[in-house]
Amino acid sequence: MISVVVLTHNRLPFLRDCVESIRANGYADHEIVVVDNASTDGTAEAFRRVPGVRLLRFDRDRDLAACRNAGIDAARGDIIAFTDDDCAVEKDWLSRIEADLRDHDAVGGVARPLGDFSPPRWWDDEINWLVGLSVPGHYGPRAGEIYLPASLNLAYRAPVLRALGFREGAPGLAGRNMTREDSDLWIRTRAGGHRTLFDPALVVYHRVPPERLTVSFCVRRAFSDGFAAYHRGEAAGALRRAAAYVLAQPFRLAARALRSGGPPRAIEWVWPIRQAGLVWGGVVSRVAARTSPARDAAWTLAEILGALWALLREAALLSIAWSVLRTGAPRSAPAAGDDRGQTE
After folding, report:
1. Which label site among 65, 70, 212, 301 has the fewest CB atoms less than 10 Å from its CB?
2. Which helix (H) or strand (E) holds 197?
3. For the chain, percent helix, then strand, then coil, each to nearest 5?
4. pLDDT (tens digit per residue) in 304-338
């Protein structure tokens, strides 16, 4: 049996569509576990007695890893799959998961837009990950290696998943909108020698509201992702390199813009902001360490000020980018069947 765990918070109409898309697979041996993270829109009442759906409800907002672990604990299947309440799954989703996991321990797939997706002219498919869609690399040879799957389209053999679990309570991540618990799980799965597969034919469709296709949303999301990456232990001693990159990139982009007269690609200003979040995670943690017995491991004041100066320069670049990009008109949606245009 496949247990499908769906997290939700105050998106009852979307949740109904998601559940219907799972049922439309026609895969008989499955159950749906809805984890209601303190919704106030009637979700619990609507799904309390729905056949084939089991409801778990938290009365107060919990972090995403805790919600996913609760779904794992409640699942009865020998395969546990995840998607989100604002997604719809492809008609062969469950059968493809079952086939993929015959010879693997974990499988991830791609996320394409659900409904209208009309990004602005400055948008770059390489930043699709900021809005929960797949990037072009998810269709290439390094998918699953450096282009990781997300929890909106992820499935595991139950014993492997129960042994690993999602890591809860990572310091500094409370209230963050990007906590990288799914990336952390996938990295630990591969490091543990488990058999992983990234299947680009395993498809879910994800809603992207227009308010997410803005510079301000992308900045917040990118910075938060970098901050989470540090707290998930993904910096791997690269903080100094990241700080140097953050410091240098505005000058590189400005020099090129002066030569060519054109604005940078979105990924070229988004990634420095993401790396600035990673550096800031290190700054916050090491400032805190100065008040602890680990004082000797903390950064010096000069290093902290240097990192802050890098962040200020990044903010200046963002201001320039905003003035250039705010006049951009929406570009037309990608043609049907164009995988690059419909990619995280």
Report:
1. 301
2. strand 196-207
3. 45, 15, 35
4. 555 555 555 555 555 555 555 544 444 443 333 33
